[in-house]
Amino acid sequence: MPRPVALLTLLILPFFSLAQIRVTKLVLKPNEQFSLGQSDILVADTLIMMDSSRIVLNKLKRDNFIHVKVAIFGTNCVIDGKGVEGKPGRAGRRGATATGPCQNGTAGRNGTPGLQGTSGVNLFLYLEEVRLNGRLIVDVSGGDGGPGGDGGPGGNGSSGTVHCNGGNGGNGGYAGIGGNGGNSGTITFSVPKNSPVKKWVGDMIVLRNYGGYPGVNGRGGTRGSGGTGPNHKNGKDGVPGSEGERGIVGTKGTVNFEAI
User: Fold this and answer.
1) DSSP track, 76-138
2) Is the alpha carbon torsion for 77, 79, 83, 85 positive or negative?
3) How do the domains of the chain map onto residue ranges?
4) CB 259 within 8 A of CB 192
5) Average pLDDT, stretch 4-14?
6) Among candidates 99, 91, 252, which has minimal Cα distance to 175?
7) Is 176 in contact with 216 (CB distance < 8 Å)?
């Protein structure tokens, strides 16, 4: 083998060895969790998931693959490819209340938007033989959107004197909008033509492929109060901040069946 080709092979082989998890037999005990980590491919001759065990897919990869010759599932087993929830928006800072006489309060800062939930994983399941003794849950739903941050309250105006009116109150900050829900991933079963897997879906196999819920809107900041002055020479109250809007629900994923 020429030296450049040999060197290229040495560089590529470690990459592919890290790209997948290859085992002869993988047994998950009751309530045990197994994570794919940085890999997005699990290949096993035999996979045994005992009651309430869980496989967590690589949610940083859009597509994940599980290829198993013989899969045996207990009850309430979970394959988790659900998207990650969006972080909530930050609340706006409170406006400053004036300290000197006859000064206006400052407006509250606006809340920031909630972050969007991430999309669920596209999962490809290659199952040559399946034995199901309970219920299997496959979840590739989108992550929920984060709530919007509240607007900051407006600062109060300071008191007036005989020479000037009380200061005006600051306006409340605008509320942040809620983050959008993440889109669901797709689920693709590749099974033999005579496999009962398709008949089990909806009963013994529960598929969760919903779009993520939208994040709720934040609340508008309260208005600052006008300062009082002699002879009713009071400052004006500020205006409350407007309410934000809810995010948008994510799209539902599809389920596909392919014969092998």
Assistant:
1) SEEEE-PPPPPPPPPPPPPPPPP-STT-PPPPPPPPPPPPPPPPPPEEEEEEEEEEESS-EEE
2) positive
3) 20-259
4) yes
5) 37
6) 91
7) no
The pLDDT assigned to 107 comes to 95
CA pair distance 70, 257, nearest whole angstrom? 18
Q: What percent of the chain has pLDDT over 70?
A: 93
Provide CB contacts within 8 A for 158, sequence distance 6+.
Answer: 97, 98, 99, 100, 101, 102, 103, 105, 166, 167, 227
Could you read off the pLDDT of 28-62 as tens digits, one per residue?
A: 999 999 999 999 999 999 999 999 999 999 999 99
- Point out which residues pair with 48 in neighbouring strands: 27, 72
Residue 79: strand pairing partners: 55, 138
